[in-house]
Specification:
about 160 residues, single chain, two-stranded antiparallel sheet, mainly alpha, globular, 4 strands, 6 helices
Length: about 160
């Protein structure tokens, strides 16, 4: 069984596996599932750590691209000053990271070049479980239009 298959199966059984800074794997979930999967995880620890690191890198690239695109749209299309655009883009990106279950390490890597933002992120393992910059005030729609959260810009169709 490949490390990716082990991760997929373990997650399918309700486990959450995260890589810690000390080179261990933190396993959380139902006690029975943990007991069942722990021997397999221990047997393939190094490969699973590599797979988790690889996934965190891919997620960081995804988040970095998301952040840069939103910051650019907010600066150039919405007319926000760059620091304000970066903060709002960080709020939107942190929300995406939380919603997709990305690791804090991925979010930190994505914002590594932005020390003011990076300093606001916790240095802990596990998935993003909070919104470190607060709730996003804006959302960037497809096509690049920025609108305030909760603002309705379309029409409702009511079917009987």
């Amino acid at each position: 069984m490949t490390p990716e298959a082990i991760l997929r199966e373990a997650v399918g059984h309700g486990l959450r596996l995260t890589r810690t800074a000390t080179g261990t794997i933190k396993v959380a979930g139902d006690h029975e599932a943990v007991d069942r999967w722990l021997p397999i995880i221990r047997e393939h620890k190094l490969e699973i750590l590599e797979a988790l690191a690889s996934q965190e890198e891919a997620d960081a690239l995804d988040l970095r691209e998301h952040f840069e695109e939103r910051a650019g749209i907010l600066e150039f299309d919405a007319g926000m000053p760059r620091p304000e655009a970066e903060l709002e883009a960080a709020r939107i990106t942190a929300t995406l990271a939380r919603n997709r279950g990305y690791a804090w390490a991925s979010l930190r890597a994505a914002l590594a070049d932005y020390s003011a933002l990076l300093s606001q992120l916790p240095d802990k393992p596990g998935p993003v479980d909070a919104l470190p910059f607060g709730v996003a005030k804006l959302v960037v729609l497809r096509g690049g239009r920025a609108v305030r959260q909760g603002a309705f810009t379309g029409t409702y169709e009511v079917k009987a």
